[in-house]
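Sanity check

After download, print the first record. It should look like this:
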Amino acid sequence: MLTRRMLKKAWPLLFLALFFVGCVGGEKEPGSTWLFSCGERVVTAGDYQDALKLALQGYPYESLSRGDEVVAIRQGVYHQLQEELLLLAVADEKGVSLQSAELESAVREAREGYPEGAFEKELMNRGISLETWRRRLEKHLLVKKVLKSEFGKELHLTYDDFQAARRDVKAGVSEQGLIQQAKRVRMEAGYRHWRRSVEGKYSIEVNGELWEKILEEGRP
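Expected structure tokens:
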């Protein structure tokens, strides 16, 4: 059985809370099920449902029995999809791509420790196809590459950075853990600043009518 630790390894969340979601390339057409678009990329209703299914794996069953919790998760995926779509548009513009060897390496790492065929069986039991999982993994890795290219420069942490990090971690955290937290906070701040700076350059169009329909279907 997949534990939450295994799920975290197989479907890692980005440090900016960009969860495992994906987009497909193509042009939106009148009457189609496109939900978001940015440049030549679109996210369809099917992409959203696949991303939601993956996101729900990280929540305990009792949370999913509460309607308000499910609505909040749906809205979270909605916003996360838009963030990833923007970053994939940046990847297109800057020519950032993922090599097949990089994807296969990540697939092997996720499968590590599972008996032959067990990983695929668990995905199937959860209603997730291997193809969907691989597609989400590929998009996740590409987004991670974009983030690294934009924010992967060496950070020079200050005393104030460590003080801020101490407020967000548990007592007794290791020095390395504190450093990682301080870096994460700095990178998140950098991302927010960058996000505001590209508001006008990368415009995300939303199919509001379709989104309201999806949200309404998910309400109890």
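If your output differs, re-run the checksum step. Summary of this record's structure: The longest helix spans residues 67-94.
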